[in-house]
């Protein structure tokens, strides 16, 4: 009966998809390809009876298989993607974008550009308006490739100018790429979202032609417009731009302060700490200590020599002056239960000594101040340094021993 046929088809389809999923999870691409072939063949008779066509499923699974299959070729992938474009109008632009990404990954820049141009001219009744965002993405990536062409042409012209040559036709071509890239890149970054690569390229274009005010406006909008999602990179780009423009220290610190609030483990926290330490204002130096302590809370910073050097230098200055010991105490109170095992174990002392003696020196100084002369890390490193007859380690040992009362005050 018709109902029985539908039920059997549904069971067969679900079983086949289950086998495909199992093959994908086990990275058995050949096996997955076989089951997908059976799946597609079985749908040819019953496709019209399905309320929702499985074209998206075939597209997603097929793309994954072809990407990893050992015998897959670019020609086969291109053929498959062209077939997928005709299966579903609603997904046409998404398939086009994925096709373009694959071409770019394989170095097919011109082919990718042609596909984007064709996609941009696509029209299909009401679907054109519904897929407005996808169309803007198509245009944006075309702008990105125009930027790529502009950048290549710019570098060629810069090389020629060094040799004393000038090429007006090449300059006009470069300006043509600039105009096309700028129009499309400017449009996409008006839409709230994360558009890092597009913003960077657009700002690069503006800076090259001396439009610094527009570049500043774009970066400020990207960083501070509440409609855009919180994005650490937006503040990084703004800081880097301000630095290139030779802006005031106040502006640089303001940009980095927001970045610190969002991502206290960002690599630019070294720059932030350095600037704060140089300040004459007590409040900023206090913040500098907070910044470097916060950065070292993260595993990625455990063996960062610059970070430990920054902390060691500031801690040493405070200990010598005996002013603001309460700053250290406040930072240490929330860390004294877990930093010793996280940073100052005997195992880490051995490893740091073997791999980077400068790092072990900075860490030992901090460990000696925070945990006293009985600290395992400090005892091991200072002993090894004195044993190796390294003068700075002998001085380190004397310094910590002399200021051991500071540890008692910090530990309470």
UniProtKB/TrEMBL annotation:
GO terms for cellular component: RNA polymerase I transcription regulator complex. Pfam families: TAF1_subA. One of its GO terms (biological process) is transcription by RNA polymerase I. This is TAF1A polymerase.
């Amino acid at each position: 009966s018709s109902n029985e046929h539908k039920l059997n088809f549904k069971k067969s389809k679900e079983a086949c998809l289950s086998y495909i999923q199992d093959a994908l999870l086990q990275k058995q691409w050949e096996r997955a390809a076989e089951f997908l072939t059976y799946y597609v063949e079985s749908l040819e008779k019953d496709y019209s009876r399905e309320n929702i066509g499985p074209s998206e499923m075939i597209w997603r699974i097929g793309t994954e298989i072809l990407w990893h299959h050992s015998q897959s070729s670019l020609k086969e992938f291109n053929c498959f993607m062209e077939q997928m474009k005709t299966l579903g109008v609603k997904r046409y632009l998404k398939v086009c974008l994925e096709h373009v990404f694959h071409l770019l990954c394989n170095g097919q820049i011109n082919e990718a550009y042609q596909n984007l141009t064709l996609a941009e001219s696509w029209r299909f009744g009401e679907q054109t308006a519904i897929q407005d965002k996808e169309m803007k993405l198509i245009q944006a990536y075309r702008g990105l490739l125009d930027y790529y062409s502009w950048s290549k042409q710019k570098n060629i012209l810069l090389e020629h100018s060094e040799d004393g040559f000038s090429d007006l036709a090449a300059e006009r071509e470069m300006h043509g790429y600039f105009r096309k890239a700028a129009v499309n890149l400017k449009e996409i970054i008006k839409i709230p979202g994360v558009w890092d690569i597009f913003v960077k390229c657009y700002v690069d274009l503006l800076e090259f032609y001396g439009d610094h005010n527009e570049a500043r406006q774009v970066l400020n909008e990207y960083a501070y417009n509440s409609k855009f999602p919180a994005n650490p990179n937006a503040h990084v780009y703004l800081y880097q731009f301000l630095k290139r423009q030779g802006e005031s220290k106040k502006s640089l610190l303001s940009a980095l302060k927001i970045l610190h609030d969002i991502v206290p483990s960002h690599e630019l926290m070294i720059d932030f700490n350095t600037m704060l330490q140089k300040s004459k204002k007590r409040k900023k130096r206090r913040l500098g200590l907070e910044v470097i302590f916060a950065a070292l809370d993260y595993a990625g910073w455990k063996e960062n020599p610059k970070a430990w050097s920054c902390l060691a230098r500031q801690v040493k200055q405070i200990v010598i002056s005996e002013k603001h010991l309460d700053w250290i105490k406040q930072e240490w109170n929330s860390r004294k239960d877990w930093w010793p095992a996280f940073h100052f174990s005997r195992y880490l002392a051995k490893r740091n000594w073997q791999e980077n003696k400068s790092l072990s020196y900075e860490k030992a100084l901090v460990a000696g101040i925070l945990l006293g002369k009985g600290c395992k890390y400090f005892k091991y490193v200072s002993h090894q340094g004195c044993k190796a007859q390294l003068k700075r380690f002998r001085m380190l040992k004397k310094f910590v021993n002399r200021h051991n009362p500071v540890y008692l005050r910090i530990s309470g």
